[in-house]
Amino acid sequence: MRRRGIFAVLALVFAVSMVMTALLAGCGEKTETKTEEKIAVTTIQEGKLLMGSDTTYPPFETIGDDGAPVGFDVDVATEIASRLGLELEVVSVKWEGIIPGLKTGSYDIVMSAMTITPERKMEIDFSDPYIDSNQSIAVKKGNTEIKSEADLAGKVVGVQVDTTGQFTAEKIAGIKEIRKFDTILLAFEDLELGRVDAIMNDYPVNAYLSRTRGKAEVVATIKTDEQYGIGIKKGNDQLREAVNQVLADMKADGAYDEIYKKWFGEVE
After folding, report:
1. What residues make up the domain containing 113?
2. I need a labelling partner for 215 at 20 to 30 A (CA). Which of 80, 84, 150, 184 fits?
3. pTM for the whole thing?
4. Using one digit for the tens of pLDDT, what is the confidence trace for 197-234?
């Protein structure tokens, strides 16, 4: 009786051990599946994330020497698409047509250094903000007359049409003329040729173009506390929520910081 009792206990222990092993293995499999699963989204073209962008705005988006779009926004969007199991395709669009194109379904998202504003939020939805910016004044090197907003009185100021640079310039009293350009690159060409006295534009872009072109400099920053967002067609909550989740993951795991360092240097 005693020996049979011992065998019975041993058998019970073995059975319990096997059950626990199976349960733990099952838990491990569930964790692995959860880690690997993709966020499912529906896009205009199966397997692709179409991104509308004004590719004349370095370092956020421009056309590289090989004819392909490059820039901070392009890199961030490429990573977002990859994490959604999609391939990014950039659709180059003129700035004035970029929101209408999103609304009519020409692309899934807009990523083009677009500041989130109340007016734009009436037309489209936005992701969570992904970078901050302020306005700034750039002048041709050697210009000692302009050092602040007040010095723009009586001057010709170049802006990209329908941007927050234009909206900021319109609030400054005394400007002789606000000259509107289709692209910020055209504005810089006129600045370098002496056709405009200054440029009002987002600080990161003014600083980048002044440095890389070598003929201008930023002389003042205007605190506007702007935030860029990814534009998404109204009602497409599935895509907006997925993009927000991926952005949060990228910031948490360091992928966002690596892209930021590539284009702007150390993260502040």
Report:
1. 48-130+229-264
2. 150
3. 0.82
4. 999 999 999 999 999 999 999 999 999 999 999 999 99
